[in-house]
Structure formats: structure tokens, C-alpha cells
Amino acid sequence: MRALIIVDIQNDFLPGGALAVAQGDEVIPVINRIAPSYDLVVCTQDWHPADHWSFASQHDGFTVGDVIRLNDLDQVLWPDHCVQDSYGAQFADALDSRWTQHVFRKGTYVDVDSYSGFFDNGRRSATGMGDFLKSRGVTEISVAGLATDYCVLFTALDGRSLGFDVSLIQEACRGVELVPGDIADAVQKMQCAGVEIV
Ligand code: VGL
Ligand code: ZN
Fold this sequence. Notes:
CATH class: Alpha Beta
Bound molecules: pyrazine-2-carboxylic acid, zinc ion
Structural class: alpha/beta
């Protein structure tokens, strides 16, 4: 069984959003086109409480893009984004949700960020996506969405660590590129972990 994991196609990651990924909207028609060819389609949804500690607004004296230590993890500070129940957290209207069988929310605990759709960054808790896919006989996953250098990267790496065959649909991903070269680095990390780049 083959599954497509659609990562964070939410208004805040699209042009005009709080944490806009350049050309993020261009992936949507690609995802809509390929989704029906999978046995199973799931989505991840970044879903933060309003006072999430990944927000620069929660740390006096720090600004967006700064990196701090949080519970023994490096944490990039982001603009407020994907706040639970906000417009920015909603899936893009243009995303065809007909094929989506389940949505896995992440980043819901105030004190830990969650880039991967499988686990939070401290691996303290699982979203249930791994068990869901395995219980349905999925052995191959394709990852598409936003952002290549954060949530797509960590979802693909965790997919490998859970034993899935993983491919990255490069045409269906865009990255943040906080530092020039971040996207290329992310692709290389995935490749080194055995992710097939297609
Ligand atoms: C993401 C930064 C913060 C992502 C989510 O979806 O890649 N990046 N939260
Ligand atoms: Zn987030």
C-alpha cells in the first residue's frame, strides 16, 4: 500500500500568510493531480496554541529567526502562525480534500515544536500517524508540501526511521530557506537517509 502525506498546506504557509513560503501555492495543483493515484492520503496540520513557545512573541528580547535553547533542543523562533482555529491554520481552499482519509495535527503542546508529522521534536509523543499507516498496510510513503527544509524534511526522515520506503515529490514541495542553501541541504539529508527524490 502506498500513501501520500500532504504536509501543512495551510493558509499561513502560503503567499500572504504569517510564515509564507515563497511560491508555496504552486504545489497545490501538483498535489491535487497526484493524490488520486495513492491508496491512502493523509494530511498534517500545524496546530499551535496561541502562546506556543516556538513563537518569537513569547520570548522577550528575541526576534523571528533567532535560535534559542528550549528543553535541550535548538528552537528557531517563528512569527505567530497556525494558531488553533484561526484562518491561518485552515487548509488552503484550493487543496482538494476529497482523497484525505485522516488529518494529523502537530505542534499542539505549548513547550515543544513539532516539524515531523510523526513525532514532536523531542520525540516525547507520537501523533499516531505511524501506527495509522502501518495498521492499514502502508509500506511506501510519498511526502509533499511545505516546507522542504522543516516539516517535509523531518516527516521524511522519521518515515525512514519507522521503516517506510520514502520518496520526496520535489515538484510538490517548497522551502523556507531561512539561510541560503537550506533547501539543498535538506534534500541531501533526505537522500543520505535513503529517501528517493522524485
Ligand atoms: C513549519 C516552521 C514552523 C513547516 C511549521 O510546516 O515547515 N515550519 N512550523
Ligand atoms: Zn509551526
